[in-house]
Amino acid sequence: MRFAFIKCHGSGNDFPLIDARAISLDDAQWATVARALADREGPVGGDGLLLLTAGDDAHPFGMRMFNSDGSEAETCLNGLRCTARLGFEVTGLDAAQIRLKTSDAHAERAEEIAPGVESITTRAGPVATDPASVGLKVDAERVVDMTVEGLPSERRFTALAIPNPHLIAFVEAVDEAELVALGDWCEAGPALVPGRINVSFVALRDDGLFVRTYERGVGLTDSCGSAMAASTFAAGLTGRVAFGREITVHNRGGLVRARADAPDAGGMVSITGNATFLYDASIDVDPATGATSEFVQHNRREDEADAWDAVARS
Ligand SMILES: N[C@@H](CCC[C@H](N)C(=O)O)C(=O)O
Questions:
Q1: pTM for the full model?
Q2: How far is the CA of 246 from the centre of ligand 1 (A)?
Q3: Is 196 left (phi over 0), alpha (psi -120 to 50) or beta?
Q4: Binding site feature residues
Q5: Could you tell which of 167, 215, 256 is best to mutate to test the pocket of ligand 1, judged by most ligand atoms within 8 Å of the CB?
Q6: Structural domains in the chain plus CATH codes
Q7: Å from CA of 226 to ligand 1 middle
Q8: Are 2 and 35 in contact (CB under 8 A)?
Q9: Which atom of ligand 1 is nearest to the CA of 215?
Q10: What pLDDT sits at residue 263?
């Protein structure tokens, strides 16, 4: 089956993005396509697969996101900016409430965060802190800046869902080997967190935060939008950054601007960042086996790639 796609990224979190509004495949077939296209050893590569999907009475369009291991996530906020941009291009809208797997989120076109950088603001939430929503099997009303019995780490964690699950530890300096070891442990789906979880180590910066994430179903990524949103909310909950303050959240792939509202002000998180389209291409993928053909690039969007590189280098 031939798929046209756009290779895109939000803050270095990169994905093939397919307009799937008129494509009918079942979940297992999409999972196979996701594994084939996101395979870093394969012809395209990415942190997962994004689908622009049909809307319903309340939403002009939707998004589905499959991690590179083929699992489907509840959301992907870096991916949502890219999918929203495509949705806006095909519908002519500039703002929309977008249907997600189990929830929805708002997106709108934003002022460019840097010259030549297509930018989108998303607003997601409300953030949930009860362990049942996070999928954490602990005997506590919530986990906020505390050690978690059964986790192979002495660090203090905050657990949140937006609505995908996140475990966040504030650290002096990010130790990648420690993050990967903990992320790998969670990927095995232990009794403490059977549905697995995204794990982030977060350091305070003068202008905000630096977030490094081991993503569920992916591994270490250059950035994770929902982790940056969850980290901003966790910084508010733990008194490290005032709720309502706009901060810069840095990551390995670049940065976004973020603001978390306090729980009694709605508990939503806004993120403004890039939605960069790198190239347009097409490829054959067998949805049963994942076998791929050579892919063909139809159009490289060098200007957009260069505009983002200037931000990432700064
Ligand atoms: N990269 C994403 C999150 C993707 C899903 C995540 N790995 C999960 O399984 O929850 C983002 O930008 O939010």
A1: 0.97
A2: 22
A3: left
A4: 13, 67, 164, 198, 215-216, 225-226
A5: 215
A6: 2-120+275-313 (3.10.310.10), 131-274 (3.10.310.10)
A7: 6
A8: no
A9: 7
A10: 97
Q: Considering only CA atoms, which residue is closest to atom 4 of ligand 1?
A: 76
Among all chains, which residue has been given the structure tokens 């397919």?
18
Ligand 1: residues with CB < 6 A are: 13, 47, 65, 67, 73, 76-79, 164, 198, 215-218, 224-226
Handedness of CA 96, 100, 102, 105 (dihedral sign): negative
- The residues carrying an active-site annotation are 76, 224
Please, are residues 159 and 134 in contact by the beta-carbon 8 Å criterion? yes
Q: pLDDT tens-digit profile of 192-214?
A: 999 999 999 999 999 999 999 99
Ligand 1 centre and the CA of 103: distance in Å?
15
Instruction: Tally Cβ neighbours within 10 Å of residue 139.
Output: 6
Q: What is d(CA 187, CA 204) in angstroms, rounded to the nearest whole number?
A: 26
pLDDT digits 0-9 by tens, 206-251: 999 999 999 999 999 999 999 999 999 999 999 999 999 999 999 9
Q: What is the pLDDT of residue 257?
A: 98
